[in-house]
Here is the input.
Amino acid sequence: MILKKLLNLLVLSLLLIGCEKKEPLEGWELANKWSKMTLYLSKNTPANTPTYASRAIGYIGLTMYESVVKGFPGYASMEGQLNGLDGLPKIDTSFSYNWQLAFNAGQSEILRRIYMQTSDANKVKIDSLESLIDKNIETSDDAEFERSKKFGIDVAKAIFEWSKTDGGHRGYLHNFDKERNMDEFPGSWKPPLYAQSFSHHPLHPYWGENRTFLKVNSELEEPPYIAFNPKKGSAYYNQFLAVYDKERALTQAEKEAAIWWGDDPDETFTPPGHSFYLTSLAVKQRKPSLIEAAEVFAKVGMSVADAFINCWDWKYHFFSERPNTFISKYIDEEWESFWPDPPFPAFPSGHAIQAAAAATILGDVFKGAITIVDSSHFNRKRDDLRDVDFIPRTFNSFWEVALETADSRFYGGIHTPQDNAVGLEEGKRIANNVNQLTWKID
Here is the structure.
């Protein structure tokens, strides 16, 4: 008797689930679900690097935008505006499209292709998210469903084919270049003894030759750099002296900032992923429409991607040393930075340039007062080596985020003030070029 009642309850429950009313996501929620999946893949895919992650969010963000822009007459496609982007799929204006379905299919497709090296289990997660969202999107008929899905997939395929010609395709297959001839000169970068990476070979030394999203961003002049001069009191010497003095006087709050923004690619979604995450926080708070959310993810993604290309171009052009090299030779031979050195040259700071690019975009899109609470590393185990916990960060502007991101590398002892100052300025310049594209049609 009891078993019969339980079976009846189970049947009733299944019937109720089958009749459950669909609850479509808001546009911003849809965008954030896929940004969350992007961050998950970045963190949980082999051979993760900040360079490759920056490229990934550039194409993923652009696919968000191009998969829906045809459905919003007031917005302009990036076709013909970006560096060699043309031949994107067209819609048939005699038929209707569901733009959430197109967005959903486009994200699923581009993620499977950009992260083709991820595990089968992660690919199942992508498919499952797409299927779950599809089931909660209202559509007029099966033909509209298929038409919308096909358009999103076709956009993703076209953007992926374009991505394959940029110089960074499958960059994870050759992260560290063992053949790179590293000619030494006074002030040149040397493989670190106190290192963040297992490899003493440089990370992606040719990344700076990749195609930028914007042609204008590949034409930027080299930033000024203080010439090598180890003489005490020189401008060059004082850059490293500032790092040395700061490390000996770090406050607990500065140590917390230093580890929070480390974003080691072996453990996190990388610095570019952090910028994508902060974008999702702003989107969640302001709740923009689908096209507005897609626009901001595209702008941030492409700005950060171009920032990394330029940064790596300048890093390997100047091939500049880090504080651990200079300080131990000219100031204090027993000195060691608070944070370990990454496996590439110093100038300018990659953290600073990408954070400034993202902050410039976000400040332009989401105007007015805003409070951002960054809890991305909240549940991470404390850093026992440095006796520091991961403490969530609160900011009252996007530029505050960029400043602390840059400062954290100074606190960590791996960047000089000029590395950060130039990175912030150049990141802003790169993002402003993205802002100046034609996004709206009058």
